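Question: does this match?
>
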Amino acid sequence: MTSSPSRKLAVSIERWPIAGAFTISRGAKTEAVTVVAAVSQGDRTGLGECVPYPRYGETAEATLEVLNAMQEPLAKGLDRAALQAAMPAGAARNALDCALLDFEAKSSGQRIWTLLGRPAPRPCTTAFTISLGTPEAMASATAKASHRPLLKIKLGGDGDEARIAAVRKAAPESELIVDANEAWTADNLEYHLAACANAGVTLVEQPLPAGRDEALARIKRPVAVCADESVHDRASLEGLRTRYDAVNIKLDKTGGLTEALAMADAAQALGFEIMIGCMVATSLAMAPAMLLAQQARFVDLDGPLLLARDRDGGLRYDGSLVYPPEAALWG
């Protein structure tokens, strides 16, 4: 009697051109660099994609090295539950966690939400991101996207009041959320929040630097404030209750869908609203997050819309409506 072959792990770096440039307060980029993990056994292969983020000290090359070091544990039977302790939260674990989930689904012949006991995902409306620029440039980009129901506006500190006003004028009917990417200060926080409130902004993401956001607990917030860089996994939730109204859950921060689902449940139990976010990446990175989107107030899964091209068989986007993945893509 022959034993079944052990699972194998293959890892690769992929580069996807962005349509134009993607600009936030920390700089601009013209391509999305992703790392893809492929877990295979026999004729079945599960895939997961992550985006290493320099803000958290991650690079594509280091992520590749970390994942390659998991080949032997995986061959010896490392499962998804053991993975949570074997690797820290971050992009590398996300790729492998999602690859293992996809492998489980393809091996069982069932969709992953059925295996996890979760509701089947439904189509949902995603935000569409407007990159940071001059008020005039942002107004022009916004006007072209003003038909979209939800816009996410990247801000950068000085001049943000003019940017907010210009964007609102260009998209009078759209719901607006803004993302300062840690660019505001305690001194201008209330001023900028008031400008957002005056423009009818619904949510402000990460206005102050992580670890230096105490001022949020001392002021009356006229607009709901969402933690992004300040929150990573369940362990970081409790300390944010007096400072934030919502948390942005991203698979690359939580280290995969396994922790992200548990984090979403814990965050809701603590009274936080949920935002599901993403990095600029292909549909393979967005697909697992569709399971989280079902319990989110804000969905920001527009990564593929910002690329010059998506991978074959990617998610279906009908305007801002994004549909659940087909089994051939993921899960």
